Amino acid sequence: MKSPEDLKKILEKDRMLIFEMIDASYELATKKGKHPLENGCNCISCVNKRKLLIKQPEKKWKFWL
């Protein structure tokens, strides 16, 4: 069984990996600029567009920007 210190290190490593993936997706989005949804594109813009296609917002907003 792993000690609590080992588990803490594993969790920190996993969190850092997630933050690095998010940073990489933002960098890709800034490098590509504005573009339509592309298959296989992992920029944050395309990821958010895919998420909206899969799960539509539950209610419509009263106000829009």
Tell me, rounded to a whole number, the average pLDDT. Answer: 88
Task: Please write the string of helix (H) and strand (E) elements.
Answer: HH
Structural class: mainly alpha
Tally of contiguous helical segments: 2
Provide the gyration radius in Å. 17 Å
Strand content: under 5%
Major sheet details: none
What's the end-to-end separation, in Å? 53 Å
Q: Which stretches of 5+ consecutive residues score pLDDT under 50?
A: none
Molecular shape: extended
DSSP E strands, number: 0
Q: Report the helical percentage.
A: 55-70%
Describe this structure in words.
This protein has 65 residues and is mainly α. Helices cover 62% and strands 0% of the residues. It has 2 helices and no strands. The protein starts with a helix and ends in an 11-residue tail after the last helix. The protein has helices at residues 4-32, 44-54. The protein is extended, with a radius of gyration of 17 Å. The mean pLDDT is 88. The longest helix has 29 residues, at 4-32.
